[in-house]
Each structure stands twice: as structure tokens, then as C-alpha cells.
Specification:
Blueprint (H helix, E strand, L loop, with lengths): L1 E4 L6 H8 L4 E4 L1 H19 L24 H12 L3 E4 L2 H15 L8 H13 L2 E2 L2 E3 L8 H11 L4 E4 L2 E4 H7 L11 H6 L3 H31 L9 H7 L2 H14 L16 H4 L1 H23 L7 E3 L4 E3 L7 H29 L22 H17 L21 H33 L5 H11 L12 H13 L1 H9 L5
Parallel strand pairs: 1-2
Antiparallel strand pairs: 3-5, 4-6, 6-7, 8-9
Helix pairs in contact: 1-4, 1-9, 3-6, 4-5, 4-9, 9-11, 9-13, 9-14, 9-16, 11-13, 13-14, 14-15, 14-16, 15-16, 16-18, 17-19
């Protein structure tokens, strides 16, 4: 199956299919017409010596410098060279592939002004699996992701490095292996390749896809802990959440009710009139993250299908409009919300873990979930690890989107820091998978100790966990358990299992 790009219908799921699952892309016939029509308009203006930012002028602080006809092509090449100024290790291949997919889709709108040849070259490289090596640090999310996108452009030109079939090699070598001719830039082509927030938006799309998996996994973990602690289920009543009206809260409460249905544990007496906030606030807290993610998703998909260039070209009106559509703030701010929300719900998870392991709070469970306390320490230090992960997520939750540092001789005196935001949100999410993994190990251990049948769904989940993490009898090194459990969660296997048993699980 091929993902057909048309400038208006690219979804987060499409991006993930291309970036992570190596689906091919193509461009709609109508999109090619728009691209060529826009280029024809620009060529007329170039031929008539019309002044156009980034085409017949320098960029940034050099926007007042007008280039002569002999300089136009060389300028585009030097633009790419000068802006490929990043540092550090390479961005993940899937992130770069996501950016390439997003950039092609921007071109499909027919407002970017590059030749169809540059769009074709992006498609060739993407479909052939030639992925540019782009430094992870260098973008401030203003004028787009100029630095990493310039390294992307260099690969199309047969310069810099690329990944191909799992190996890093010179881009020219990778192109030759795929029988792809290097791109020769002409007027406007360089800026049409790099001028947009495509790298941070591609990373945001992947992060939101994975965050959706995490929040569904979170509900499974919460249900396991609620059962293990014989929680009072009144706070999850649908009426309670409907009366307040937040969709995320209603969704979480419904998930928890479905997951726990049929539990023999929850038929037991000994429930508190009101459980601690870390239990009964779960729908409200985790639901707020769901609502933030819903907003973030809408913003990212608008950006994936929008025109983020400067200038933009309007063939129907023969107009060139300069502005700041490259600015990364519309994506950066929602991703800050998601990062903060993930950190917040991770705190909730760690607090539930504490209640499982603390004998003063665990409703009769043994200290640190070991049946041989003193001789064994059980999950005592596993909680340390969860605490360390939570502490780092809190640090990473410090906002980047308001940390502008003026650049380019104060011509770019506000920048979004959108790339930094998405990078740290991705790291927060990875930590959150770790916290949740440890909670679920503890919850499975607690359910086994209880020895009373949990709900059919949770019983199936626990059986699946036991294939990766055995019951903790005698103490053993726990780092392998933690890593195995985290890998299980990130694979999506548990969510797929629950979805097969509960079609309405969301």
C-alpha cells in the first residue's frame, strides 16, 4: 500500500506508516499540477528580475541584499551549506523520514515555489530507504528546522552522509546504490527544501502516536493496581464524570470500569469510604492528558497539511507573501502540554506503586511485595528507579517554548524552541514507559499474592506479563525485569490483547 500525499489529508497514522513501517509515498496528480503552476509563476518573476525574498535576495539579516542572475543557483547551494550547522549525534531515522514525508506534503499545496524535481527527489530517496544523517541539535524552531533540514537537502545533492540498509555511508554512495541521480539546485529550490518546521512536526507526530499507546497502557496499569488494592469503585461511576463534562475523564473512567468488570477481588469487603487521590483521581488526572493530546493531535495535523514556507507563493493571484508561517510555536506549545501531562500522570503511577509496596498503605499486602520480608527486599529498590525516572520527567517538563534566544543579528528575535520541546517530550515519554513498567510489575506481583481471581481481562494481561517477567519469589536482579517489561509495553502487545477482549476500549 502507498500513502498518496495531496497537501490536505496527511494524518499522524500516515506519517508513522511511512516513517516507521517504510510505506512508500506518491503524490496526487492534482498536486503535481499545483507544484508546476507555482513554479511557472516564479520563473516569470525571476525572468522579469522581480525582487523576491529568498529567491532573488539573501535571507534573514541579508534580505536586503539583491542577487544578480548569475548568483541565483549558487546562492541556493551555499544556503544549504551554511545552514547545515548542527552538532551532536544523528536524529533517529524515523524522525528524518517523517520530516521528508511532511515536506513532500507541504509541496503538494503548490505554494512553496520549488521545482517538481526537488519533490521527486525527496520521494525517490524516501521510497528507496535513503535517509539523510541530520544532527540532533541545531534547530531553534524558527525559519523552520533549517539546520537538520539542510543536512536532509545535502543528501539529495549527493553530499553529507545517509543511512541505507542499516549502514551509515556517504550520501553519494547511497544514491548510487539506488540509481538515484544527485539533485542540482536552481533558484528557490534550496529554501523550498528547508524552510518549515517539518523535523519538529515529524517528531511530534511520532511522539503523539506513541503517547496514545502509553495512555491506553496507563489505564490497564491503573486497573491492575485498583484491583490489587481492592479499591472503592464508586469514584469511577459514569454519572460522576458526565456531570463534570470532560471527555478525557469520561473515557478513562469507562476504560477502568470495563477492565475491572467481573473481578472476584472487587467483590471483597474491607474497602475504604474514600481512597487516596492517586487512586480515585485517576480519571480526572489521566483524562486531562487525553484532552491535551487531543488538542495536540489537531494542531500537529494542521501543521502537517499546512504551508509553512516564507515566502509563500499564490499562483491564482500572482502574489508573493512574506511572513512567518515557519514559526514552530503552534506545535511547540501543545507538545509542552503533552510533556507536562505525561510527567503529571507518571507521578500518579509512581504514587500508586508506592501504595502497592508500602505495607502501611497496601491493604494487607506484604512489605515491598515479598513474601519473605527481611531475608528479601522484593520491589523496594525498583521503586527507587521509578522515583529517578519521575524526577527526570519533572526536570524535563520545564518549558522550552518560552525560552527564546534571539538569533540572526536580532532579525529573528523570537524563536519557538519547538525542536527542543519535541525532543524533551519524546524523552519524557520514554521515561514514562519505564515508570509504568515498574508499576505493572508490582501490580502483577500483588495480584499473584492476593490469590483471588482478578477480572477476566486483567487475568489475561497478567498471564501475558508473566511470559516476560516471572513471579518474584526469591530476590533476583531486577534490571532485566524492568527492561523486559518496558519493551513489552512499547511493543503494544498488551494494548492489542485488551482491545481484542474489549472492542470499546479506547
Amino acid at each position: 500500500m502507498t500513502v498518496v500525499l495531496d497537501g490536505s489529508s496527511l494524518s499522524i497514522e500516515d506519517v508513522v506508516e511511512v516513517a516507521r513501517n517504510n510505506k512508500n509515498v506518491d503524490v496526487s496528480e492534482e498536486s503535481w499540477k499545483r507544484i508546476n503552476r507555482c513554479r511557472e509563476m516564479i520563473q516569470v518573476k525571476i525572468d522579469s528580475h522581480e525582487i523576491m525574498y529568498g529567491v532573488t535576495t539573501g535571507i534573514g539579516e541579508f534580505s536586503e541584499v539583491v542577487l544578480d542572475a548569475e548568483q541565483l543557483e549558487d546562492f541556493q547551494k551555499f544556503l544549504i551549506y551554511s545552514h547545515a550547522a548542527g552538532i551532536g549525534g544523528p536524529l533517529a531515522e524515523e524522525v528524518v523520514r517523517a520530516a521528508m514525508c511532511g515536506r513532500i506534503n507541504v509541496h503538494c499545496n503548490g505554494n512553496s515555489g520549488g521545482r517538481s524535481a526537488i519533490t521527486e527527489k525527496l520521494i525517490e530517496c524516501l521510497n528507496a530507504g535513503v535517509t539523510p544523517v541530520c544532527a540532533e541539535i541545531g534547530s531553534v524552531g524558527a525559519c523552520g528546522d533549517l539546520s537538520p533540514m539542510s543536512q536532509m537537502a545535502m543528501t539529495l545533492m549527493g553530499e553529507g552522509d545517509a543511512f541505507y540498509e542499516g549502514k551509515r555511508m556517504p550520501s553519494l554512495e547511497a544514491l548510487k546504490l539506488c540509481n538515484i541521480e544527485p539533485l542540482v539546485l536552481q533558484a528557490r529550490d534550496g529554501l523550498a527544501l528547508i524552510n518549515g518546521s517539518n523535523m519538529l512536526t515529524g517528531m511530534a507526530a511520532i511522539t503523539l502516536h506513541d503517547a496514545h499507546l502509553w495512555i491506553k497502557t496507563h489505564d490497564i496499569a491503573a486497573a491492575m493496581t485498583l484491583e490489587a488494592l481492592n479499591a472503592n469503585m464508586i469514584p469511577y461511576d459514569s454519572k460522576l464524570h458526565e456531570l463534570r463534562g470532560f471527555q478525557g475523564s469520561m473515557d478513562v473512567a469507562e476504560n477502568l470500569r470495563m477492565l475491572i468488570k467481573g473481578s472476584k477481588i472487587m467483590e471483597q469487603t474491607g474497602k475504604k469510604v474514600q481512597d487516596a487521590y492517586s487512586l480515585r483521581s485517576t480519571p480526572q488526572v489521566a483524562g486531562s492528558l487525553r484532552d491535551a493530546m487531543r488538542f495536540a493531535r489537531s494542531q500537529v495535523e494542521i501543521e502537517l497539511n499546512g504551508v509553512g514556507d516564507n515566502p509563500i507563493f499564490v499562483p491564482d493571484e500572482s502574489r508573493v507573501i512574506t511572513g512567518a508561517n515557519f514559526q514552530g510555536s503552534p506545535v511547540a506549545l501543545p507538545m509542552e502540554m503533552v510533556g507536562t501531562g505525561l510527567s503529571m500522570v507518571a507521578v500518579l503511577s509512581e504514587r500508586r506503586l508506592n501504595r502497592l509496596t508500602n505495607p502501611a498503605l497496601s491493604s494487607g499486602l506484604p512489605p515491598f511485595l515479598t513474601e519473605k520480608p527481611g531475608m528479601h527486599s522484593g520491589l523496594m529498590v525498583a521503586q527507587y528507579t521509578a522515583c529517578a525516572l519521575v524526577a527526570e520527567t519533572r526536570i524535563l517538563s520545564h518549558p522550552a517554548a518560552n525560552q527564546s534566544i534571539p538569533a540572526a543579528a536580532d532579525q529573528e528575535d523570537f524563536v519557538s524552541m519547538g525542536m527542543t520541546t519535541t525532543q524533551k517530550t519524546q524523552k519524557i515519554l520514554d521515561n514514562c514507559f519505564g515508570v509504568l513498567a515498574i508499576e505493572m510489575i508490582a501490580a502483577a506481583q500483588a495480584l499473584d499474592i492476593r490469590g483471588i481471581e482478578p477480572s477476566p481481562v486483567i487475568s489475561a494481561v497478567k498471564d501475558c506479563i508473566r511470559e516476560s517477567v516471572p513471579y518474584l519469589d526469591d530476590d533476583r536482579p531486577l534490571f532485566t525485569d524492568n527492561d523486559s517489561m518496558k519493551e513489552l509495553l512499547k511493543s503494544g502487545k498488551l494494548v492489542e490483547l485488551v482491545e481484542s477482549l474489549l472492542p470499546k476500549f479506547n
